[in-house]
Amino acid sequence: MRTRFAEKTIIVTGAGTGMGRAAALRLSKEGARTVLVGRRPRPLDQLAAEIIAAGGTASAIACDIGSDAAVKAMVEQAIDTGGRIDGLFANAGVLGEFKPLAETEISDFEGPVATNLLGTFLGIKHCLPHLEGGAIVINASWTASAVMPGAGAYAATKGALVAMMRTLAMEQGPRNIRVNSVSPGIILTPMAEEVLDPLFSARLAAHAPLRRNGTPEDVAGTIAWLLSEDAGFVTGQDIVVDGGFTLGGPRL
Predict the structure, then answer these.
(1) pTM: predicted TM-score of the whole model, two decimal places
(2) Which of 60, 71, 147, 231 could form a disulfide with 48 if both were Cys (CB 3.0 to 4.6 A apart)?
(3) Ketoreductase domain: which residues (predicted)?
(4) Any idea what the CATH number is for the domain that residue 227 is in?
């Protein structure tokens, strides 16, 4: 077991499933005190129990990240529990409705904007005053720089996150706070598997040079690296973790 995060407290939003869960497990194995945040208490409590049973330290906080007051209270509770904040993996997100932009309604933007964009912003905003150095990693998406027809509303929020990440990196650099993002490719999270039927999933896998789709664990290592001092001179970067899927442009 490595101890890159010994005595460090890391907040992970959207920790109940998928990449958030995988990242929390990876960080805890490397010594982090993880604060698990999400809308639903049950998966958070189950994950916290799993981490504690393995000898780690974790606490679960149910929170609507789209609520300014709720996020502020969550961060205060995290400090009360862990004593400090050393990093944030701003992961929580929703896919929303997949449809051509010409058929997209204003209401179709509401969920992705509230969670993906504003929820991420609120988490960062309320963590920043408590960070002394440390790192923030934002979960963006390969769709921020390539194209999946039908994912326009979702991709718009993810592209905005990459722009926000770069601005934050410039603004917070003098405080020795590093800000980066990861842009996962086709990752078989529970959320993705709800919209990918097996035939389409296999078609996507066939286009990747590695000839497979990714797993949450494939992304967790990159997240841990960016949050660690091993990436101490890396900031303002978007790291694509897609098995080469977007090499040469999208191929759907």
Answers:
(1) 0.94
(2) 60
(3) 8-176
(4) 3.40.50.720
